[in-house]
Design brief:
Elements lengths: L2 E6 L6 H5 L5 E5 L9 H14 L6 E4 L6 H10 L6 E4 L5 H17 L8 E5 L4 H5 L11 E5 L2 H8 L13 H17 L2 E4 L8 H14 L3 E4 L5 H7 L4 H15 L7 E3 L2 E3 L1 H16 L1
Parallel strand pairs: 1-2, 1-8, 2-3, 3-4, 4-5, 5-6, 6-7, 7-8
Antiparallel strand pairs: 9-10
Helix pairs in contact: 2-3, 8-9, 10-11
């Protein structure tokens, strides 16, 4: 998935528009986008959306953090309607992923679903303690398919008045948290998704940052507005010259006669470049 679009769980009037927006996946949000007093009704709305909405794309649900009573209420209301995945916010350590895995497994069995069928995307560096617990995310349960992070929640946790400098780029603390998320995902051999941009009207900035995300190793980006989807998809779709290079690398290595390194355009190509080429062509399949 190149893009995952959030839609407030208490705005059922927007569900159909979100599904038809062109996003690669939609996330019905029961956490930050919904006031606590509105969550009981939002659970009813999301359950109805899961039950009745067409599924040309995966439908996910962001629940509340594991340490809250809201999390189990969220899961109990949605699992019976087979969400494709659950987004877990503010994961404190790998222990939160194990707890969520146990809850989901029990509910899947209760509803006659295959164990592990509901996937998980975890937001793993939204608090200072989670950043310091980064190593605990290296071996997640099998249902965890991706990690992301949250710049706004982290800013609130550390007491920062802003998370970006005047030129629009993240300050050091937030770049570090972003890098921790990327490294944890790489260690776990799962996908890394970059945090959404809050400036949804600045399409050029969204695309520029998404391009940087892809260069750094992220496979996609979260979105909060449909206007962000086109620039995100453009950034995460390989350019023709990248595709041509990747195909040349794989063809050259396949005919190298077992050599570990070969020359291509004046540069030495070896196994890391093969992996890079494979990622480019995998991104092509998603675009």
């Amino acid at each position: 998935m190149r893009s995952m679009l959030f839609v407030p769980g208490d705005r059922r009037d927007r569900f159909g528009k979100a599904v038809a927006s062109g996003a690669d996946a939609v996330i019905f949000d029961l956490e930050d986008a919904v006031l606590p007093v509105a969550r009981p009704q939002a659970r009813i709305e999301v359950a109805a959306g899961l039950r009745t909405a067409p599924r040309p794309i995966p439908l996910w649900v962001r629940i509340n953090p594991v340490e809250t009573d809201e999390a189990l209420l969220d899961l109990a209301s949605i699992v019976g309607y087979r969400p494709d995945g659950v987004v877990l916010p503010k994961a404190r350590s790998g222990a939160d992923l194990l707890q969520l895995d146990h809850w989901l497994e029990a509910l899947e069995v209760q509803h006659g679903q295959t164990r592990g069928s509901i996937k998980v995307l975890a937001l793993i560096t939204e608090t200072a303690s989670a950043v310091l617990n980064g190593a605990s995310f290296a071996t997640p349960p099998a249902r965890v398919v991706g990690y992301s992070w949250g710049a706004e929640d982290l800013a609130a946790d550390v007491g920062a008045s802003a998370n970006r400098s005047l030129d629009g780029e993240f300050e050091f603390t937030f770049r570090m948290a972003r890098a921790c998320c990327l490294l944890a995902a790489a260690a776990a051999r799962i996908a890394a998704y970059d945090t959404p941009d809050i400036e949804f009207r600045d399409v050029a900035a969204v695309e520029r940052r998404a391009q940087a995300s892809r260069r750094d190793g992220f496979v996609g980006k979260l979105a909060i507005h449909p206007a962000q989807l086109a620039p995100i998809h453009a950034a995460f779709s390989p350019a023709p010259e990248e595709i041509a290079w990747a195909r040349r690398v794989l063809e050259l290595m396949s005919t190298s006669g077992g050599q570990g390194a070969v020359a291509l355009d004046g540069r030495m190509i070896d196994r890391p470049h093969v992996r890079q080429a494979e990622r480019i062509l995998a991104a092509l399949d998603r675009s």
